[in-house]
Amino acid sequence: MRIFRSPLSRLCAALTAGLLLALTVPFGLQAQTAPPGGGSSPGGMMGQQQQQQPDMQQLRLDLMALQLDLTDQQRTKVQSILADQRQRRQSVMQKYRQRMQGAASDSSARQAMQSEMQTEMQSVQEQTETQLADVLDAGQLESYSTLYGQEASSPQQQGRGQQQQQSQSERVESSIEQLGAQFDLSDQQLAQLRPVIKQQMTQMNQLRQQMKEAGQDKQKRQQVMQKARQMQQKTQQKLSEVLSEQQMQKMQQIRQKQQQIQKVRKRMRRQRMQQMRQQMQQRKQQQGGGGGAPPQQGGGQ
Fold first, then answer.
1. What's the CA gap between 83 and 62, in Å, rounded?
2. Alpha-carbon torsion, ordered 156, 85, 130, 157, to 10 deg
3. What would the pLDDT profile of 253-266 be if each residue is shown by its tens digit?
4. Does the chain have fewer CB atoms within 10 Å around its N or its C terminus?
């Protein structure tokens, strides 16, 4: 399974380099509130990574400042509010991490704790939004809610098959909302962009499937990547026909900032994997090196 991850990741990066990179769900409630690792133990390595990566926090603040058009004074106040939010979230995650470690074999208890943690995280988010309401104007606050608010529904509650088409439609509308929030688009521009977004999402799904079918065939993977680049160029052309020069410039700035964030995330993943390997080696040494003498395998003369 892992052999597909690298080319698929590269494909997604190429596909999102144009329109969809600017539409990527930003660092918001989903990334910071949901238990890391798909709901295993809260915090863990991800919490450590966030503490170790102040440059990521700075990049995220830069991105928010671009998206919401923050003044320097607003940016300073928002930075303080988000730092306080980060501290409270880490405190909640640490508390539940310790509790979950004590209930490692009780899945029902862990699920109940996860639900409690989500409730506390939601409370933290609501407090943050109350503080932001004193700093942002009405338009900025609405944009913040659109870009960084809580997900309308949980993916676990969505079915597959027939609902898959519906979820794509919902993603199109979500993308339209995010575009409007970031670029102050007119109703006419939003109407013109809706089919562009829908078409690109459909093509993305097709290209992902083609990449999966290509397997380890290098030539076929390169052909899919070429199609992705061509699609990106066509999308950029369509965008330039709808957006103003100023809006295109802002999209480019947001795109560059998100690319920087992706690079930092890759570095964080590499560091996390390195830490995990080091921890595994330490455990092996502790388990096998107690007596100092090596195991007597095939010894004797």
1. 14
2. 0
3. 998 998 898 888 88
4. C
